[in-house]
Amino acid sequence: MGMWLIPALIAMIIICVISFVSTLKIAKMTSERKSEKDTPISETVEEYATMLNPIVWVYLIFLLFLGIMIFYYWSKAGY
User: Fold this and answer.
1) What is the pLDDT of residues 4-56, one digit of tens each?
2) Residues 78/24, Cβ–Cβ less than 8 Å
3) Contact 61, 11 (CB under 8 A)
4) Within a domain: 18
């Protein structure tokens, strides 16, 4: 077991939880639609389309994790 096991598991759990919750929300919205045709896009989605994209959230979590790891090893080196 390497030193990366616990941080990698934590990052994977966070990503899985976000993906699962997003999937449930989309499935609920799809099942509640009253017609087979697409509904109009809400103004919130039009204004913040990239922030509601789960892939963007995965990249943000990865960059946060990477920043924490870089800071940790930089502070541990003691330069």
Assistant:
1) 778 778 888 888 888 888 888 877 877 666 666 666 777 777 776 676 677 87
2) no
3) yes
4) no
- Name the maximum alpha-carbon separation found in the chain: 63
Domain carrying residue 57: 48-79
24 belongs to a structural domain:
no
Count structural domains, the chain: 1
Its pTM stands at 0.47
Residue 57 and residue 55: Cα distance in Å, rounded? Answer: 5
Q: 18-52 as b/e, with b when 16 or more CB fall inside 10 Å?
A: eeeeeeeeeeeeeeeeeeeeeeeeeeeeeeeeeee
Contact of 75 with 35, CB cutoff 8 Å = no
Position 58 in a domain: yes
Owner of token pair 């990249």: 59
